[in-house]
Amino acid sequence: MSDTIIRSSLFISVFFLTVQSVLMLFFQQNLPPYIPFFNSQPWGEERLIPSAAILFLPLVLFLVFIINNFISSILYIRHTLIARILTFNSLLFIFLGLLAYLQIILLVF
Hints:
Blueprint: H1 4-27, E1 34-36, E2 48-50, H2 56-75, H3 80-108
Antiparallel strand pairs: 1-2
């Protein structure tokens, strides 16, 4: 935690996870039964998933956050740069997950 890059990435990641969870709780009741999730698919039913499945998004992001930061803590003593890269990649992954969720919300509403 003495490394400023790792500490900043951790705090911002936790903030983004919290924001996404709060938004998810706020919008969950207003979602339609099916939402567009697979945006790379052509228009149609292939793009849709049940709206309850969107609850797994923060869980997956949290799992990636835990795994990357666990590996980062193991590698920090010998390979500081790799530990920083893993922590920053975790932040980037969580930020992109938040943007994907916001895109889904904007498409639905």
